[in-house]
Amino acid sequence: MLRKLVRRLGIAKTSALVTIVAVLFSVGMSVGIEFIIHGGVSAQVIVFAIAMPVLIAPIFNYVFLRLVFQLEDLQAQLHRMTITDELTGAFNRRHWIELAELELARAKRYAGVFSILSFDVDNFKRINDTFGHAAGDLVLRQLSHICMSNSREVDVFARYGGEEFVFLLPEMDKEQAWLFAERIRTTIAQTRFAFSQVEIGITLSIGVTTFHSTISDLNCLLMQVDQALYVAKNAGKDRTIVAQGLDDLANSIQASLSAH
Question: 221: closest CA among 177, 183, 163?
Fold first, then answer.
C-alpha cells in the first residue's frame, strides 16, 4: 500500500504527508503524557513536539522512500528478466506459454477466437557458419524488433527457442492470421540486415493455426502449428502454411508450391 501511495503522490508529497502525520502523532502523544503527569500542557512541550518530527522526519522519509522506489524498480527489473529473452527482448517461451494458456481459457469460456503463428528462420545455420554467431545474433535481434513493431499491442511475441519464434494473436481468425503472417514474411524477405559492411537476407517458414471448439488443450494447438511449420519447410521454405486436417495437407503443399 505504501508503494502505491508513493507512486501516486511522488517522493516529495508523500514525505510531506508522512511528516504531517508524524507531527500530529507527536503532539498528541506529548500532550497526553504531559497532561497525565502534570495535569496541564506547556507551550514548550507543544513546540518541542512539533519541532522534532519537522526536523527529523523529512530526512528520514526521503531516504526511506528512495529505498522503496529502488526496491520496486529492482523487483520490476527482476520480473522482466524472468519473462524476457535476453538476446532479442521478446518474451521467453515459459511466459508465452503462460499467456497462451490464459488466452485459451478465455476463448473456451467466452467462445472467442485466437490464432498462433510459429516461424523459423530458413537456413539460419548457414548465417552462423558464413558470418559468425555475432551476425546471427544481430539478425535475431533485428528480426524481433521488426516483428514487435509490426504487431498489435495485444499480440504476444516470443522467442520459442533458437531461431524459432511464436506469436499469440488474440481475436484473429484463420484468414486474418494468414494475412498477418504473410505481411511479416514479406517484410522480412525484403529486409537486408547489415553486418560489418555485409548485407544479409533471410526468409521465414511460417505455420499458422487457429483455436476452435474441438481443441482440448494448448498442446493440440502447438502440435498443429508445428505440423504446419513442418509442411512449410518441406514445401520449399519461404512460405506460410495454415494448419488443416491430415486429408488436406497434400492440397496445402500443392497450393503453396503453385503460389511460388
Answer: 177
State the Cα–Cα distance between residues 72 and 14, nearest whole angstrom.
Answer: 16
- Residue 246 CA to residue 194 CA, distance in Å, equals 41
Q: Is residue 151 part of a domain?
A: yes
Give the end of a domain, one of 57, 83, 109. 83
| CB-based contact 137:198 (threshold 8 Å) | no
Q: What is the pLDDT of residues 27-54, one digit of tens each?
A: 777 767 766 776 666 677 677 667 766 6
Nearest CA to 104 out of 213, 225, 227 is that of 213
pTM of this prediction? 0.71
Total domains, the chain: 2
Q: Are residues 64 and 134 in the same domain?
A: no
112 close to 149: Cβ distance less than 8 angstroms: no
Q: Are 238 and 188 part of one and the same domain? A: yes
Active site residues: 163
Q: What are the φ and ψ backbone dihedral angles of 76, each rounded to 5 degrees?
A: -65, -40
My answer on whether 79 and 98 are in the same domain is no
Cβ count within 10 A of residue 129:
11
Tens of pLDDT, residue by residue over 48-104, are 667 766 666 666 766 766 776 777 777 777 777 788 999 999 999 999 999 999 999
DSSP, res 92: P
Label the pairing between strands 192-195 and 164-170: unpaired
Of 28, 51, 83, the residue that ends a domain is 83
φ/ψ of 208, rounded to 5, equals -130, 135
The pLDDT score that the predictor gives to residue 32 is: 74
